[in-house]
Amino acid sequence: MIGHRGASGYRPEHTLASYELAAWMGADYVEPDLVITADGALVTRHEPEIGGTTDVASRPEFADRRTTRTVDGEVHDGWFVEDFTLAELRTLRAVERLPHVRRNNTIYDGHYGIATFEEVLALCARLSARLDRRIGIYAEIKNPTYFAAAGLPLEHAVVRALRDAGVDSPDGAVVVESFETAFLRTVREELSVPITQLVEQGTVPADLVATGDPRTTEDLVTPEGLAEIAGYADGLGPDKDLVIPRDADGKLGTPTSLVADAHAAGLLVHPYTFRNENHFLPADLRRGDDPSGYGDVFGEYAAFLAAGVDGMFTDNPDTAVAARDLRGRLLRESWMMAG
Ligand code: G3P
Ligand code: CA
User: Fold this and answer.
1) 20 to 30 A Cα–Cα from 195, which one of 230, 292, 293, 307?
2) 0.85 cut: is pTM over it?
3) d(CA 232, CA 288)
4) Residue 275 C-alpha to ligand 1 middle, in angstroms?
5) Would you state the pLDDT for residue 25?
6) Pocket test for ligand 1, best of 2, 4, 47 (most atoms within 8 A of CB)
7) Tell me, what CATH number does 80's domain have?
8) pLDDT tens sequence across 214-244
9) How many domains does one find in the chain?
10) Which ligand 1 atom lies nearest to the CA of residue 177?
11) C-alpha neighbours within 13 Å on the C-beta side of residue 134
12) Ligand 1 pocket check: which of 33, 269, 274 to mutate, most ligand atoms within 8 Å of Cβ?
């Protein structure tokens, strides 16, 4: 199981505290999203704009950094990581991204700083020793085309960070993922780590847009597209709807052939993102009217495990691990009954 942005159902995302809690909850991997500072440091934020997950808006010393930028075709107003040095980012504090859905998490606002990738690597090494099992890192590289245009190519920074840390290995301790295909092809040439191609229904990877490549995600997930992905990647990270779409009423529908097609191409399948709250669940799995209340996430996990996925990105690693263990126990019991 992969702790999505750590254990972001319980702590502000992408903080060391969030990653550490994910490991203690049983996650096999923690998932840092990586962006880059003005002075070339890899730090863990979900997007270039940092106003939604830090207290930068309340800092008068950075008021003049507020600006408008277009990221992968979308206009954003706020503060952008590439305008800050690491030393400046160090002065900021992380805050909960979804205060209305995750009100309890807001008690941690201001408790934690912005983590560097180096710190995540060190944390996972420490946790692996402490918990006596490997805590892997499933690192998503965010917006390579955008950052390259800003003069901050991510390829060199990522390759250098993994080599310097001594974790450029096919053993799976570190997996590299991205939505951008060209970035992953470069990583395949430079590094020996496993690679996952992320895909999102109804979108086009930014590198394909930039080069005028007419393919969309829907083309990438055909059997032919998957065979091509398998030429440079080991896994596929689809959004959940590509595996089990919701029907017209918003209920969990019927699985597509994606898992079987990806497996036939030799790719593992790790869909995203599983979350306990009603707000994120299919209509038939919600319980009560409170969007922030927990619904039947175990029903959702069970459906995806039955569909044959190999792992899942989850904001709630504890429930994902419980669901996986329950399925294992039920399968063992059914074999015993049959025998
Ligand atoms: O890496 C899987 C998932 O994290 C991709 O989506 O937007 O949550 O980074 P996002
Ligand atoms: Ca991610």
Assistant:
1) 307
2) yes
3) 45
4) 13
5) 98
6) 4
7) 3.20.20.190
8) 999 999 999 999 999 999 999 999 999 999 9
9) 1
10) 1
11) 8
12) 33
